[in-house]
Amino acid sequence: MATMQDKQLHPDTTFSLTDVTFRVPGRTLLHPLSITFPVGKVTGLIGHNGSGKSTLLKMLGRHQKPSEGEILLNSQPLDSWSSKAFARQVAYLPQQLPAAEGMTVRELVAIGRYPWHGALGRFGVADRELVDEAISLVGLKAVRASPGGQLVRRRAPAGVDCHAGGAG
Questions:
Q1: Where in the numbering of this chain does the ABC transporter domain appear (predicted)?
Q2: What integer pLDDT is reported at residue 68 of this predicted model?
Q3: What CATH number does the domain containing 30 carry?
Q4: Terminus of the chain with fewer CB atoms < 10 Å: N or C?
């Protein structure tokens, strides 16, 4: 069985942000941020409510455009990627997903396979194996059959290398 780690599907996938800001009228939700997410590492976003964590993730997932600054994926501007090519590089699962009520963790993770065969395509054995491996890699194997909506708060698995930084 080929694994995600064996295949090195996207060994160099990384985001790089330069002076990224997000504002709404009368308020700055994300102050200028410049960061490159390290390849092959898990990065934790830690901050108070309203500090811009969800806004940053929405920008990385192309659900919101920054007010200023530049976001690159693999050294290319986000808006230069076709939807399909972007979806094959980035899986984004928002914090609030009303349509997911009743879906299991495994079913939610499986959504990330759609860019390879479309919503009406058939899931094969290889897809199921990759979904199971992704679940194992992030330490959620024990809850893969649990409803995804109930996983409001999970701890990072022991041994995950986390880096916290920022201007506070």
A1: 30-146
A2: 97
A3: 3.40.50.300
A4: C
What H or E segment, with its residue span, contains residue 70? strand 68-73
Is residue 84, in this structure, part of any structural domain at all?
Answer: yes
> Which two three-digit tokens encode residue 160?
């995950």
Amino acid letter, residue 4: M
- Residue 161 inside a domain? The answer is no
Strand order in the sheet with 15-24: 27-36, 15-24, 68-73, 76-77
- Classify residue 165: in a domain, yes or no: no
For 140-159, what is each residue's pLDDT tens digit? 888 777 766 555 444 444 44
| pTM of the predicted model over 0.85 | no
pLDDT of 97 reads 66
pLDDT in tens, 77-113: 999 999 989 988 887 777 766 666 778 888 888 888 8
The identity of residue 110, as a single letter, is A
Distance CA 144, CA 150 (A): 12
Q: Which tokens go with 9?
A: 């599907």
Whole-number CA gyration radius for the chain = 17
Do 23 and 29 contact (CB within 8 A), yes or no? yes
> Which residue range is the domain that position 15 belongs to?
4-150
Least confidently predicted of 31-40, 73-82, 110-119, 158-167: 158-167
